[in-house]
Amino acid sequence: MLMELHVRTPGAGLLEITAQVEDCLDKAGVVQGLVTLFVQHTSCSILVQENADPQVRRDLETFFDRLVQPADDPSMAWVRHADEGPDDMPAHIKSMLNGVSLHVPVQGGALALGTWQGVYLVEHRAQPHRRAVLLQFIGSKA
Q1: How far apart are CA 91 and CA 12, in angstroms?
Q2: What are phi and psi of 54, to 5 degrees?
Q3: Which of 4, 46, 92, 100 is most buried when burial is the number of CB atoms within 10 A of its CB?
Q4: Exposure b/e, 117-129, CB count within 10 A at least 16 = b
Q5: What is the rounded average pLDDT of the residues 53-74?
C-alpha cells in the first residue's frame, strides 16, 4: 500500500514525524512487514535519530552547519549552483549525506524503533517548505 504524507517544515532543522508515520501505518493495517519512506525532494532528507533529548537535534544541526557552510561563505567559493540562494547547494549536499529514503520494520502493528528512536524529516533550507514523503507498506495485515 502506497501513501503520501505532507509535512510543513518551519525552516532548517530536524522535525520528528514518527506520529504521522504511525498514523499512516494504522490506516494501512499492516501488522508485520516493512515501511519504506522516500522524500521527494533534493534539499531535505529523512533519518532515524534519538527523540529523547532535544540537545541531540541541536548538536546535529550545528554539526551539519559547520560541515557544510552557506554558499556565500568564502570556503564555498567553488559552488556554482546558487540561483536559489546561499542555502540551496549546501542543502543538496546535506541531503546527499543523510539520504532521501529509509526502511523501518513493522512488528505487531507498530514501527520497530528502539526506545529512544524517532523518524525525522530534516529540512536543510532556511525557509519553511511543504515536503512530500511517500510511504510504501509491505507485509501482512491482521
Answers
A1: 9
A2: -60, -20
A3: 46
A4: bbbbbbbbbeeeb
A5: 95
| Beta strands at 101-107 and 30-39: parallel, antiparallel or unpaired | antiparallel
For position 85, which CATH number holds?
2.60.120.460
Q: What is the total count of domains within the chain?
A: 1
Report the chain's mean pLDDT, rounded to a whole number: 96
- Cell, residue 7: 509535512
- Is the pLDDT reported for residue 93 higher than 90? yes
Sole residue written with cell 499512516: 24
User: Is the sign of the CA dihedral 78, 81, 83, 87 positive or negative?
Assistant: negative
How far are the Cα atoms of 5, 21, 40, 110 from residue 57, in angstroms, in the given order? 22, 19, 22, 24
Give the domain range for residue 41: 2-141
